[in-house]
Task: structure prediction
Amino acid sequence: MICLRLIWGIGGIGGLLATDVEPIYLAIGFIGYIVSCTVPFLIYLMDKTPRYLPIVAELVITCSLFLFLNHFFVLTELDFTNFSFFQVPALLIGYLSLGCHGCWAFLVLLIFPNLFSDGFTPLTIGQYVDTLFNICILFIIGFCFQKIVSSYQKINSMYKVIQEQNKSLELYAKQVEKLTLLEERNRLSRDLHDTVGHTFTSTIMGMDAVYYLIDASPSDAKANLKELLHITRNSLDEVRRHIHQIAPDKEEQSLVAALLQTGNEFSLYTGTKVLISTEGEEYPVSEQIRITFIRCLQESLTNAKKHGEANQVKVELTYKGDELRLRIEDNGKGITGELKKGFGLRAMTDRMKNINGSLEILTKKNGLILICSVPILSRKITK
Result:
């Protein structure tokens, strides 16, 4: 809008300079164009100014300049008409018109310049209607352009607010995750403390009994020692499980590595062939998602072997830009009739809901297909 107004002003000044008139008229016209091109914009850009003030300035300055040039046309025979003069000002007044101020500004713009023509002679009806229509079109174009710019600014400001809120939500989610993990680790630490204390207490008391039974009853001592070894091994396995659960983040396995280890161990102990493949570029996920997918794989492998009597399980982990998907397919007996979710499947469903994911179970003639999927919102926001 500023560029259009400057072009309008330069064109008007150029028209004045092209005429052979007295310098006083040139100076007044030159100053009039400069004031008309600058003052309304300066008032519009000032903070805390009433909305009607730049419109009033535009009407007063431009209409005054129109009257002067209309009189100047009679004296100098300058090729000047009211519509050619008010084209850009009408567009600008439409742009500056906000709310109810556009109504009276529109009326003044229509009535004043169209009452007169060359030498202040009234316009004919045809001339008036033609000029009225043209100025209306320009005013409406300026007004619509102002609405478009205003809408764009509002959308842009809302987008910035949404970005700030998303950053706050991401920070809050990370804080909640850290607090949740800290609380869980504290709980596991207490459990580990109780487990270790109980294990060592039982072992020491049992070894004391074995110490006194070695001479008196060697056979009973061997039996007690064998039982102590069994209890100690089980306790050691439990301690190891607790240690793995409370390991720091930097020592934790990635999701792919954890799934491979789970599948390899299951294959080693049960003889079931577990084939694990990945698709897409791996990216880090939250600890909650990682643990949930590991638990889902463990439960699926157990069900495939225990209930389906499968000897092969295919596992596909797919990394997408906005979704992480785990597909588990076995070649077991499958399910005939309606699927009834047991405790394990219900637990898997609840785990997926807790991370805003979903669990889909598909039955086939030979085997079962489980699909675990979760949206990755942080990567959407980043993009």
About this structure: The CA atoms of residues 9 and 34 lie 7 Å apart.
